[in-house]
Amino acid sequence: MTDxxxxxxxxxxxxxxxxxxxxxxxxxxxxxAEGAAAILDFAAANADIMANSHIIYIPKDCGEKYVAQLEAxxxxxxxxxxxxxxxxxxxxxxxxxxxxxxxxxLAGTEGLMSETRTTATNAGVSLDSIQLEHRGSxxxxxxxxxxxxxxxxVITDPYVCSHCGLNLFVRDHYSERLGVFQGVRVDAEDHxxxxxxxxxxx
Amino acid sequence: MSAGAEKISxxxxxxxxxxxxxxxFQFKRTDGGSFPAFSxxxxxxxxxxxxDMTRLNPYSLMSNPLLPDVYEISIRRDExxxxxxxxxxxxxNVGDEMVLSYPVNLFSLxxxxxxxxxxxxGIGITPFIAQIKQMSLLGGNFELHYSVRTKSLGSYVDELxxxxxxxxxxxxxxxxxxIELEQLLSGQPLGTHVYVCGPKGMIDWVRSTAQSLGWPESxxxxxxxxxxxxxxxxxxxxxxxxxxxxxxxHESLLEAIERAGVDAPYLCRGGACGQxxxxxxxxxxxxxxxxxxxxxxxxxxGDKIMPCVSRFxxxxxxxxx
Amino acid sequence: MTIQFNDETFKDDYTFKNSKxxxxxxxxxxxxxSYMYSVNLxxxxxxxxxSVFEKGFDVDEHxxxxxxxxxxxxxxxxxxxxxxxxxxxxxxxxxxxxxxNKAKDYxxxxxLHKDGSTWRWINKPxxxxxxxxxxxxxxxxxxxxxxxxxxTQGDHVLLDQREDNLWADAGIVTTQADWxxxxxxxxxxxxxxxxxxxxxxxxxxxxxLKFLMNIQLGAPARRLNWTxxxxxxxxxxxxxxxxxxxxxxxxxxxxxGAKQHLRVELQTLWRLPRSNxxxxxxxxxxxxxxxxxxxxxxxxxxxxxxxxxxxxxATYKGFIDNKPLMLDFLSKFDDGLPTSDGIWPDIETEPPxxx
Lengths: 202, 321, 355
Fold this sequence. Notes:
heterotrimer; B: alpha/beta; Elongation Factor Tu (Ef-tu), domain 3; Ubiquitin-like (UB roll); 19% helix; globular; C: alpha+beta; 7-stranded antiparallel beta sheet; 3-stranded antiparallel beta sheet; 28% helix; 20% strand
């Protein structure tokens, strides 16, 4: 269960729940930072599937905090990696060799879960085989509708596109296919009039 | 818009008895034109005039879906049914004129799939024949597992084995050949979709096995035409039309409504598509829900009924028709 | 039927103009003096000879120039035309639908000759004469959706029907009212409508989705939608918002009549045979406020609709800031007289402006 209560929003905005038990022959967990806690909570009630589980964890600022506990789960495979891009080749390989019946469990930041879900659906995993549980940072993965560049870890509104430099306001409109929220130029109708950045959800 | 899909006047151009149970019918358009193209898995509803009774039965189309100059269906004779299949087998002949509906598809292929895994039992082979023709013309990865009672009752087995020897697997019940379902569903690549059409038991078996092995719902497809069940006769009052119909033992509520000349919407006539959903304004008795469409709460609430397959037992039933 | 095609632009110098004939058949969308959302779907059947509802795919004087504008937008931004791989078959279905309809309805302008799978398509206004093999994309210069979309007015979205929902899995979109195909492609019905305020609470989308999923072959449906645009700009995309957004602020009391346009979308929905998908053509018609005001009933009605529209809708449709200026202009054409029901101009029966 996420420790943050997202305010109600539009129908395209993803809503996260709690990881639930599902039948399957293989279970793939991908998490970052505080997402490890969601895996630990789930494993406590589902120890029997750990023998068929592959855990891919990117600690980020959590460092060693959860690593020992994850190791103690005795999953058939555990990988602790320095970053998501570094983990990509492993994730792609697991997906390329997976069979129907694999269950995916994503936990942590919206950015990680979004990007991973997109990778998984591109590899042929159905949306209904993928569960998401939010933990930790509230930052978003944003795409600039003008230059199409993606900016990670956005926590203010408006924000500056890391590619083209425009000031963009943060929309709740979300694309599952791309794994991003939409950013639109904030001063389009009044060039130069950029409101002060405010932290999201505050 | 009136009930059902657009209609086409046709003439029976071929009638071929395939085996003791199954006969194939081929139709050409009476006006000589070509038929609408369709998507594999679609069915047509045939209008049969049997004396003063009009039957409307859905049958899967088997013809080439992409450029069809004929429509073809295969019908399995059902001795215990309501008479539609017997009527077709015994009373319809080459040269007869009939009416078909435009195709309607409630069992379409998910074209995103990287592999289509098809499981057929008996007459359930028919929608797959059209789908396989489609895939052969457009390219696509498919695999068919087809269970038949005996070799002689294996409709289209020879044709399928000839044309697709590497993609078709046949299982003869009388030779104890069984689909190794768990094994089959355990090693499929990501992006495989499974489709099952056949007797209810087979459909339930494939669905539950796939679910227990972790296959997501979106990848499991099935088509089951529920034939309307017979039951005790009952009355229904159609409040808008100001008429009361007496539903006979062997006719459905929908058929009784139609017999009374009231235009009621329908599509599949088999309890699956939701199109005939009718509001119950009043009832004193028990609604017998036999459909796949309503949610449990809707059934319990008693304010909706699917007249194509459901019935009623009791004193009063008033419908919003 | 001969159509005199305009040579006009929909950006930069904006030479777009409606002839009297075009204005007379403009699909004014308001059937009463106020506006609220509804599932206003009706069968798409031939209605009123000469109107935009007569033909399956309406062709008018703006055809050639609109297609030129489209080609320019696509050259600048090819992401406006995309088709997820499984939608190619639906693209062919759509190509057949347009070709057959246009060849039947405008035989002087379009011809379709079939010899088995070998088809020859002649589009006289655009100077096209192409022979290709139906269902074989190697024989067309673009995928089928883009090929025919470049010759058909309006945006076109292909909707895959699965999992009890509709998915916008392909489209050619260059005349949109501020939504991004590249962002929305792959979304389902609920997701792509998410930004529309109020409608979800009214249950509009739930009912509409059910209706759409039951549309059958040979029985298309249609509805009208509308918004406001400053200048007769077709490409009001989020991608180019920075360029056109600023134009909204560049109107004053003297220019609002000519620059403010009512933008009406004639949306049709057709079941496609081989793919079982739906195609959703969104045909855009523009008329300036000053032109609309020459029709007394429309002048009265438009004023009342804009005056009474809820702020959320005016905001969502992007004209909340210009609303006072618009009312300033429109009020001159509202003499308070009653208006007849329905969208038609009713020139013979509706009295001229009494002011």
